[in-house]
Amino acid sequence: MVEAGAIEEIAPGVHVIPDGRVEFVPNVGIIEGERAVLAIDTAMGHLNGRTVLEAARKLAGDRKVFLTTTHFHPEHAFGAKPFEGGVTYVINESQAAELAAKGPEYIEMFSTFGPGLAQLLADVELVPPDLTYEGQLRINLGGRAVELLDVGPAHTRGDQLIWLPQERVLFAGDLIENAFFPILPDPDANGVWWLEALDRIAALEPETVVGGHGAVGGPELIEAFREYLERVRDRNAELEAAGTESGEIVTTIEAEVLERYDGWGNEVWIKSAVESFQGSVPS
Ligand SMILES: [Zn+2]
């Protein structure tokens, strides 16, 4: 569950409720401006959504509250219901479409991950955004510029960055995670696209990087994901060229990266990273 009491101010008026490395809990952001406050990610289920909303309202006081989500995945966006009415929810077009298309199947899928999750998701209602944009949207919260940037597909079709150009703080969603393997859960996640998204992320030159999960860090988090994905890509190409069959390539690379990235979580997703570099990239 989201622990609002653990909230940290990582830059003046820029807050993170850290995930505490708890599974299915994301890093949540709350950004203050003079006129409005922006909450980033709802966490999963109405209970967590309410916790995030209350934390945002507590900081906001009389100021208006906006909500955005880094991507449609349940632990990031399926707590939006309590925000409905009174809060403006804004995301990019492709994320909105992806939420509508895949939302119900992801509720079902995540409900099989354990009784706790099934309970959290039992009464979930998917909430469409109030506002969408294509490409990028600049919001002025009052003395605080925030840029919403559509960078998908990579981890999902509708991946979105939240970028604070003055403070050089980036909220990257699951495109960056600290000491977790990248998650590629369906065909809209692909290592080739992900590396392209990392180029765009690095070009922003952020000083502070808040990933979807794991401790807040700096640009080294971008380089760690790039190094991992390039390694998987290059090893797969070498083994394919040597005529190794797909299953054995996966087993070989899994063993290699588990040793190299000792302590990283989510190792179940190494296989799909390897497979995303096999065959042609879907268009
Ligand atoms: Zn995700």
Report on this model:
- This protein has helices spanning 45-60, 74-77, 93-111, 115-121, 191-203, 220-241, 246-260, 270-276; strands at 8-11, 14-17, 28-32, 36-40, 64-68, 87-92, 131-133, 136-140, 145-150, 160-164, 169-177, 208-213.
- The protein has 283 residues and is α/β, with parallel strands linked by helices.
- The protein has one domain: Metallo-beta-lactamase, Chain A, CATH 3.60.15.10.
- The strands form 2 sheets. It has a 7-stranded mixed β-sheet. It has a 5-stranded mixed β-sheet with strand order 8-9-10-11-12, with helices on one face.
- Helix 3 (93-111) crosses helix 4 (115-121), helix 5 (191-203) runs antiparallel to helix 6 and helix 7 crosses helix 8.
- The longest helix has 22 residues, at 220-241.
- The structure holds zinc ion.
- Zinc ion (ZN) binds at residues 71, 73, 155, 174, 183, 212.
Binned strand content: 15-25%
Oligomer: single chain
What count of helical segments does DSSP give?
8
For the sheet with most strands, the description reads: 7 strands, mixed
Structural class: alpha/beta
Name the CATH superfamily assignment: Ribonuclease Z/Hydroxyacylglutathione hydrolase-like
Which ligands occur here? zinc ion
CATH class: Alpha Beta
Q: How are the strands of the largest sheet arranged?
A: 1-2-3-4-5-6-7
Give the N-to-C terminal Cα separation: 37 Å
Question: In percent, how helical is the residue content?
Answer: 25-40%
Order of helices and strands: EEEEHEHEHHEEEEEHEHHH
